[in-house]
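Each record in this resource describes a single protein on a pair of labelled lines. An example record follows, reproduced without changes.
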Amino acid sequence: MRTIEDLHRIASPVKAIAPGLRLLMGLSVILTAVSFPAYDLLGPAAMLLFPLTGFAVSLIPPGLCFYRLRYVMPFVLAVGLFNPLFDRQIIAVVGGIGLSGGVISMITLILKGLVCLMTGFWMSAAVSCEEMARALTAIRCPRILVTLLVLTRRYISVLAEEASIMQEAYRLRAPAHKGIHVSAWGSFLGQLILRSLDRAERLYESLQLRGFDGSFPPLDTDGRKRSFSAQAAGIGVIAAAAAVRWLF
C-alpha cells in the first residue's frame, strides 16, 4: 500500500484528467476486454496496449505491476488450464500446427485476466482514495458505500500490519512451530478482530475530531484547472476501447 501511495504523488500527465474520467477509462478497458468471445485472440491482445500505454503516461514501471501482483498472476495463468482437455476440436492452423478450441480459449482467458489485472493496478495507482471518493460522490453514489470503499482501501494495510505483529509475537513464543498451529487459529483470529475493533474505534474518534461527516466535496485541493485537451484525451481512450471491440 505504501508503494501505491508513493505512485499517487507522481506528477504525471494523466493527473490532468479528471478522477471520474480516469475511473471510466479503466472500467471501459476492463469491460471491453471481458466482452470478447472465447475464441477471439486478437481483441484481448490488442487491449494489452491500453494498460501498457497507461503505465508509460503515468510514469509507472510495468515491472512494478507484475511484482506487486506476483501472487495473483499464477491464478490468472491457471484460468482455463483444463480447456484443452474438454475442447479438442481443431479450429485454427498456425505454421502447420493445429490449435484446438480449448487451447485458443485458454490463451484468450489468460489475456483477458492480464488486461484486467494490469488495468486494475493502473486504476489504483492513478486514482487516489480521495479522488475516487469525490468521483463516486459526483455520480450520486450512496455516501455509506463511498465511505466504506475509501476506508477499506485506505486502512487494509493497517489490518495487515496488525496481523503481521501478531504473527511475529506468536513466532517468538513458539519458535519450534512452522507457522501458526491449527489449535491457535481460533484465538489468533479472535484477537485480530478485537485489535481491529480497537483501531477502528480510535480511527472513528479521530475522524469525528477532524469534523468528518461522510461527505467528500467535489473540488481540487491544489486549485488546478483541468485542461480541455486532457479531458478529450480521456474520452478518446474510452472511444478507442469501444473501437477495438467493434474492429475485432
User: Anything to note?
Assistant: Residues 121 and 240 are 20 Å apart (CA to CA). Strands lie at 90-94, 97-100. The chain has a mean pLDDT of 82.
